[in-house]
Amino acid sequence: MSSPAPKAPSAIRGGRAIRVGIALLAVVAFALSYDALRQMAVAGHVRGLLTYLFPLVIDGFIAIGIVALIILRTAPVSSRFYVWMLVGVATGTSIGANVVHAVGLNEGTRLRLNNATAGALSAIAPLALAGAVHLYLVMNRHLAASGAMAEASPATPPAASATPGDDRPIRQEQTDDDATAPSAKAKSAPEANATITKSPPAKVNRKKGERKTTAPDNVLWSTARAIGAEHGTVPRTTLEAAIRAQGYTIQKDRAKEIANAVTAELASAANTDAAA
Predict the structure, then answer these.
(1) What is the number of structural domains in the chain?
(2) pLDDT at 58 exceeding the cut of 60
(3) Which terminus, N or C, of the chain has the lesser number of Cβ atoms within 10 Å?
(4) Is residue 252 within 8 Å of 232, Cβ to Cβ?
């Protein structure tokens, strides 16, 4: 008797109500924070209609940063840590501004800011501009590297290297001539043995358990250049993992050779740009 199929996440009872509740909570929280930040903008001497845009600089940056974290979930740790830092700074700024707003109104009927707080508020807009531009560059670099690696991966797995060949020995039937001429075979045997002794087969200097490189050169170079575009360098271990993820095998010496060559290309390009 087969077990019942598991329910999809959308079919779980109460799932839609939870999503609607989360959306409403986010809207209410944004509205309350928006009101406090707008009053902070008025107290910070922001003019006219621009006070309505000031809350978007802080809380809007938080929302964009969270979406960026989802997009960069496969990015290197350094990139994700940088985005987390930006989101943390924006969240801390929003919390601090809300606290100053509440404490200021609690002490009097009109919100007044000291010089340090007013100066800090005036620095939020240019800092948000710099952070947003650099966040865009980080996301664009990650997406470009991911697209290059997707183009470098083959459409189908390498069937030639994955499918083992037929290694069964081929049986050769003995002919009548072979059966009637045993003396000829006996005479030719010493000559064959002498030939084998003089020219032994070449030994393959391969370490025990080491696999040969099956990845084509175009896949090796394109994958290494995609990793270099994302990281600025090509670690050998990262290149090996990317090649094996595509269904190929690669020797450490070959991976190190390609990684060093692409790293030298990146360094040469950087020196050329610096000279220009």
Answers:
(1) 2
(2) yes
(3) N
(4) no
